[in-house]
Amino acid sequence: MREQMLKSILSDLNGASADIEASAIISADGLTMAALLPQSVDEDRVGAMAAAMLSLGERTARELARGTLEQVMIKGEDGYILMSYAGRDAVLTVIARKEAKLGLIFLDARRAAKSVAEIL
């Protein structure tokens, strides 16, 4: 039941913008809780990488006195990856096109993360 609710949130998020290519909800320890990813993408690898990136982001923010980590954004030549907390125990990962309007992606992701946190 909970997994279906989480997938529904991801489906709504992916449908909110043509710039969002995929998304996933990952536990803080790197396990995929729900995902709408392309078949060519390994969910377990995405989960492990997201957990590692957030852990490194937390340490970096703390060491450089930037406060509590809110999100990590990666920009590559083919697009963006945004990771943000969805409550204490989950991470929302969004994969977006390089032409994406980031303000709208951030807004949609923030809303989705809030919905995920309420379910968990």
What does this structure look like?
By secondary structure, the chain is of the alpha+beta class. Helices cover 45% and strands 28% of the residues. The chain contains three helices and five strands. It has helices spanning 2-16, 43-63, 102-119, and strands spanning 20-27, 32-36, 71-76, 79-85, 90-97. Strands 2-1-5-4-3 form a five-stranded antiparallel beta sheet, sandwiched between helices. Strand 4 (79-85) and strand 5 (90-97) form a beta hairpin. Helix 1 (2-16) runs antiparallel to helix 3 (102-119). The protein starts with a helix and ends with a helix. The mean pLDDT is 90.
Summarize, please:
By secondary structure, the protein is an alpha+beta fold. It is 45% helix and 28% strand. The chain is globular and about 35 Å long.
Q: Could you state the order of secondary-structure elements as H and E?
A: HEEHEEEH
Q: Describe the biggest sheet?
A: 5 strands, antiparallel
**What is the spatial order of strands in the main beta sheet?**
2-1-5-4-3
Outline type: globular
Judged by helices, strands and strand pairing, the structural class is alpha+beta
What's the gyration radius in Å? 13 Å
Number of strands: 5
Distance between the termini: 12 Å
Oligomer: single chain
* Percent range for β-strand residues: 25-35%
Return residue spans where pLDDT drops below 50 for at least 5 consecutive residues.
none
Helix content: 40-55%
- Average pLDDT, to the nearest integer? 90
Number of helices: 3
